[in-house]
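May I ask you to review the protein record following this short note?
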Amino acid sequence: MYGLYEGYWSNNTLLFYIVIIVSVFVLLRFVKINIRLTRRTIIDFGFTLSFFILLFVSGFRTTGRDINGGYYANFLTATSVNNYRDHSVEIGFRLINVVFRRLFNNYSAFILFLSFATLLPVFWFVKHNVSERKRPYVLLFYVSTYFFSGFSAARQYLAVSLCLIVYSYLKKCKHFRALIWILLAASIHTSALAMFIPFFITVNKAVSKRMIWLSVGIMFIAVYFFRGSIIGLLGPRYYNYTAFTSVQIGSRWIAYYVPIIYLLYRELRNEKDKYFAKLNVSIIAIGFLFEMLSYVVSIIGRLSALTLPFIYIVPYFIDLEPSQKKRTIYRIILLLYCSLRFWLYLNDHYMNEGLMPYSNLFFSIH
């Protein structure tokens, strides 16, 4: 049932989430079954089953603070765009609400659609950009780091998934298509406009990697010294989310980004494709920006989800390592890193994001 929430730590829920993560990895790593439907259509059984497992866990959930609060209240008023309860919500997302409210009048169907629309771009991207050998690590990264985060902030994570399509088109230098998808994603959640950073960086050939890193340094200094002004610009709505009286490099920031920075630095300095290198460094810059701002206004930390392309970037650069021994070491480190990210997020946010205990329309785990 939606609209009710009572949160507390649940060891059984923790175990359930771990089983989901491990199951997806095992299916992709060890299950090599292809089912031929037609001459041209072949289904990867492990890949497809992973999609439907995640769709079931997410699509039928009643877990998540936002979907039991504001999302539910908004849906009840979505008889028209004008009647929609919260007019600060972007027009694209309001239209989705109105369509489902008018056609089905079923909030469960609405949540199922949001989950499907969030997972589909991720699996589309993996299918068209990632080899079968790397898929277990890419989706392990996704499920452990981004999947459960979207249980509450469903609107934002739908936009973030669409931004993965933006990244795909930027990677292929298809800037017009990327622009269309940026605008579409921004109609769901305004934070998607941050993808204009990699868009303009890749379009402008005069921008170098060094200039990007310099900009990141300037942003950090600006956040550190002008914290009060930033809070004023964001408005009173975010004042209650003020995090600290001073900006500091926290353990979360170090755990999230230092390993990725180290790996990318090693490989990007040898990267012959300067365009691709600039694109990836700009994604890191987005993550830096929002993580630093989250130490001013805590809820902005959600926006670091725009680093979703990391699920592709990190395994890609691991595979560039010529030494088989080092590649194996890096993959083990990636497994440990994903475990750490999962634990840190769940431990920090299980209450405020409503991630525990897990429940869905069919059963609950206490």
Remarks:
- The radius of gyration is 20 Å.
